[in-house]
């Protein structure tokens, strides 16, 4: 009784993986079974009756050719156009009709095998989506007034608070409000080294909380997370075809009609023109039907494109279609937004000068204490600087924010002001430290003054710092012959300083969003292909205008949606890597196209010269198809 009760679950446990394997690899298994039937018929040809011999080949035809015949018929009915699948089926039937059963069956076998290889390429290219979707948590531990509640991630809303325990995947995009931990973000950025994050840091759905308990405030619904956007972008990329692929597909239908027309003529003309026997004439027509088929040409592009998109997805590069991947290699000018693209997007204090050096700790403490009440980036920069210097904050009273100018407050009876020169007294400000403010401003820095009662106590200079990878990225692009230009809304002094530090060829400052579009149009008038890299809402029009728009992964939703390529890790050096991948893909596609056309021409000429027979024609034609697919698969690495 006991053994019987356990036997059924064990069988069902193994049945499901076996069935999944058969379902996944059905096309390949059908091709292999077809090949086995052909081989069996050939080996036993001297020992079996003719009826059995024909039956084995018919079985090979049906098993190996069913998927392709079904696909060919459905596409023909749907598109109302002839295709290469029908050409191959006709060639196989024609071979069998004149008694060449084995040759026809071999044609079906190799054609089915090449089809299985194409399916493998498609499945391989979708692996990143499958692995990402598997990583997507389905439930979250939501904090409520009564304690904790397990809810579906689809029921999480903005501002909900969730608890993420060590070892768990983060179920939603959000901001840490309690705790700190090392986060494995490889699913999003492709970077295997964990990143330590604490309060106010952003976390993403699908990443792994390694060693600390975190309380996170949800900032995006489950349908709007970066994780979901990555999945949708890769899916979109796989369905969008490159110009080369579209051309081949348009060419295929016309070419198939021409081949069928020539074969129809070949069925009788050589008999009267060259004196060939009727058997030779029909035989050569069947060989022409096989060797002239554009299978290898059709398979030259899609496997290579899908492999390249898959490769990019693994390395933090998301292409929204083969057309953008193909065009990247042809870019000869790239425009960059400044803030958040070439720079980190947050100002940092670069200079701090005090009226009385011995009081600098006290002055910095009070200035940071006043600024901590403000969310302005400049205010936050001073607070961060005080923290870096290890200066404690002080208590201040009666703080008042003077919009657009600065803030003021009282400390121990003294009035303190922090803000622009006009706010603290322009003349006094520019006389401070022998007019150092003017020198700092010429360096492209923002200058903020601290005033105690009636005297200037300090000046802070800050600048949006250039990203660590910016110089390397720009240098790499310039080596590749790409003209680089920075487009920014900042003033000329700041733009000149950043452009010089980043190493771009040229810059244009004080641009409104619509003016950025005008500059992209001017670039397009001078260069064949122009790219634009940005991250903000104001960059979206320019990203849409450029031939290829590239968005930083940490950018706004509008920029991500408008762009053609996304740099998930905000790493500008990936642009150069993407161009190299694009060049490699274009090179492999050209190799495939030239190789497939050459083989087709050689086989057609050999057939007319009667130096090739049907088996060799089948092997030459289908072998070239398999070779171009395998060549395209090299882009997976």
What secondary-structure arrangement, pairings included, does this model have?
Elements: H1 2-24, H2 26-43, H3 50-79, H4 84-97, H5 101-125, H6 127-135, E1 139-144, E2 147-152, E3 161-164, E4 174-178, E5 181-184, H7 186-189, E6 195-197, E7 202-203, E8 208-209, E9 214-218, H8 226-239, H9 243-266, H10 269-273, H11 278-291, H12 295-298, H13 302-314, E10 317-319, H14 322-328, E11 333-337, H15 338-342, E12 343-354, H16 360-371, H17 377-388, E13 397-402, E14 406-411, E15 414-419, H18 421-424, H19 426-431, H20 436-442, E16 446-452, E17 455-466, H21 470-479, E18 483-487, H22 492-502, E19 506-508, H23 513-526, E20 530-534, H24 540-545, E21 548-552, H25 557-562, E22 565-567, H26 573-608, H27 614-633
Parallel strand pairs: 11-18, 11-20, 18-19, 20-21, 21-22
Antiparallel strand pairs: 1-2, 1-3, 3-9, 4-7, 4-9, 5-6, 5-8, 10-22, 12-17, 13-14, 14-15, 15-16, 16-17
Helix pairs in contact: 2-3, 2-5, 3-4, 3-5, 4-5, 4-11, 5-13, 5-27, 6-8, 9-11, 11-26, 11-27, 13-26, 13-27, 14-26, 16-17, 21-26, 26-27
Question: Key features?
Answer:
637 residues, alpha+beta, Calcium-transporting ATPase, cytoplasmic transduction domain A, Rossmann fold, 4 domains, seven-stranded mixed beta sheet, six-stranded antiparallel beta sheet, 27 helices, elongated, disordered N terminus, ATP binding
Overview of this structure, please?
With 637 residues, this protein is of the alpha+beta class. The protein folds into 4 domains: 19-130 and 242-304 and 588-636, no CATH class; 157-220, Calcium-transporting ATPase, cytoplasmic transduction domain A (Distorted Sandwich); 317-343 and 467-582, Rossmann fold (3-Layer(aba) Sandwich); 345-466, Calcium-transporting ATPase, cytoplasmic domain N, CATH 3.40.1110. The strands form 4 sheets. It has a 7-stranded mixed sheet, sandwiched between helices. Strands 2-1-3-9-4-7 form a 6-stranded antiparallel sheet, with no helix packed on it. The longest helix is centred in the last third of the chain and has 36 residues, at 573-608. It is elongated and about 115 Å long. The two termini are 54 Å apart.
